[in-house]
Amino acid sequence: MTRQNESYNPLLCSYPDSEKINKVSEGAEAMYCRLIAKCDDGANYHGQTKRLLGKLYTIRNENGSITPRKINKYKSELVNAGLIQLYKIDNIEYLHIVDCKKSLRSDVKLKRNYPQPPVNTEVIESVTDTGRVVTDSAHQSNPIQPNPIQPNKYCPTSEEVRLSSFLLSLIRQRKSDYKEPNLQMWAKHIDCLIRLDKRDPARIKAVIKWCQADPFWQNNILSTDKLRKQFDKLELQMEGNVNAKPKGSFIR
C-alpha cells in the first residue's frame, strides 16, 4: 500500500498506449521517459531546446554525444505524435505531457513548479526537427492553433475538479436532481481563479462553503463562473459576518 507521502511511479500510471509511442523513434521515447521523471505534478516542464539539453542530458551534453538538433528532432516527434504540447508564457516556451498523472491520490497536493498551460492559449500544433512551426496547407493561415478544452484536460484529482465537485455536492444537498454540469468547464473557471486571480484553493473552498450556507447567495452561486464573478463580494461579506458582533452584544 502506498504511504501518504510516497509518490507513484509515473510510468505505471501515465505511460501512453503503444500506438502513440510506436510512432516515435527510440531516442524520442527515451526523452519522453526522462520528461516524465523530471516534470512537475502538473506534467509541465521546460520546453526550450537549450534547457532540455542541459537538464535532461547533462553528461551527454558535456561529452557532446547529443546535440540541440537531436533535441529538436525528438521534441518534434513527441509533439506530432500528440504525446506533448508546447506553449508559451511571457514568451518562454514550456511543454505539457498529455494525459500524465504523477499522483492519483486526492489527499496529495500537487507540486507545480512550472506555469500551467492557460486555457485557450496558443499551442504549437506541429514542428519540424529544427523546432520550426510547420506551415503546410493545413496550417498556412494559422500555424498556431488555440488549445481547446479536452475531456480530460483537468484530471479528477486536480484542485480545479475537486473544488468544482465540492460546489456541486453542496448544491445537490439542497436539490438532489440538480443537472449534471460540464465539470471540465467548471474546472476552467476555478483554474482562472487560482492561476489568474491568484486565489488560494483553501480560500476558494471556504468561500464556496460559506456562500452555499448563506440564504441569499446559495441560490445565486450555482456555477463556478458565477463564483468567480462574485468572489470578491462573497469574500468581503464572509469576512464581515465572521467579524461582526453577535446581535445584542454591547461594550462594557
Textual characterization of the structure:
The protein is α+β, with helices and mostly antiparallel strands and 252 residues long. It folds into 2 domains: 10-146, no CATH class; 159-243, no CATH class. It contains 11 helices and 5 strands; from the N terminus they run αααβαααββββααααα. It has helices at residues 10-14, 18-21, 26-38, 49-56, 58-63, 68-80, 159-174, 183-195, 201-211, 224-229, 231-243; strands at 44-46, 84-89, 92-97, 122-124, 144-146. The chain has a 5-stranded antiparallel β-sheet. The chain is elongated and about 65 Å long.
Summed up, the domain count is: 2
* Proportion of residues in extended strands: 5-15%
Distance between the termini: 58 Å
Question: How many DSSP E strands?
Answer: 5
Counting helices, strands and paired strands, the structural category is alpha+beta
Strand order of the largest sheet: 1-3-2-4-5
Mean pLDDT: 79
Largest sheet: 5 strands, antiparallel
Number of helices: 11
**Shape category:** elongated
Helix and strand string, N-terminal first? HHHEHHHEEEEHHHHH
Provide the low-confidence segments as ranges.
1-8, 120-126, 133-149, 247-252
Percent helix among the residues?
A: 40-55%
Radius of gyration: 22 Å
Quick description:
This protein has helices spanning 10-14, 18-21, 26-38, 49-56, 58-63, 68-80, 159-174, 183-195, 201-211, 224-229, 231-243, and strands at residues 44-46, 84-89, 92-97, 122-124, 144-146. By secondary structure, the chain is of the alpha+beta class.
Secondary-structure map:
Blueprint: H1 10-14, H2 18-21, H3 26-38, E1 44-46, H4 49-56, H5 58-63, H6 68-80, E2 84-89, E3 92-97, E4 122-124, E5 144-146, H7 159-174, H8 183-195, H9 201-211, H10 224-229, H11 231-243
Antiparallel strand pairs: 1-3, 2-3, 2-4, 4-5
